[in-house]
Amino acid sequence: MTAAIGVPSVEGIPVTHRGLAKVFSAMMGHKELSGVPARAELTVVLLMGVGQLRTSAALLTAAGLPAGTPVGIVGNDYLPDQRVTIGTLSSTADQAEAMGVANPTVIVIGDVVRVSPFATAHFRTADFSTTTPSRPRVSTESAPQL
What we know:
- This protein is α+β, with helices and mostly antiparallel strands and 146 residues long.
- It is globular, with a radius of gyration of 14 Å.
- The chain has four helices and seven strands, in the order H-E-E-H-E-E-H-E-H-E-E.
- Helix content is 21%, strand content 23%.
- A hairpin with a 7-residue loop joins strand 3 (70-75) and strand 4 (83-88).
- The longest helix is centred in the middle third of the chain and has 10 residues, at 53-62.
């Protein structure tokens, strides 16, 4: 369980965040996701799930999560070559495949990925001060460049 929280946190991806996600569910990535509720305020954390990423993304999309839901993959946990891949439910399997992402990984699915310093500018342009969970207001200002 500590890897599900600690690994993404090291890369600036919390599993919960005020205004974005108040609960998370962590599971092995090779398990069936049909029982996981597809709710905007829920973060789904998959451990070792690269091999089933395409299936997992399709199941979560079919269950109601938008195809544009952010996904962060932290690969090679705590190793010198640890890296982060950021995408969406609709793009992440292709990205992971193209980049050769392999286990060990921690995959974080949900709006909390937006706060990662590795998130692209269009993810980071949200104002998370809203009190409505999982519905950040979009800022008219450009995102800070990293």
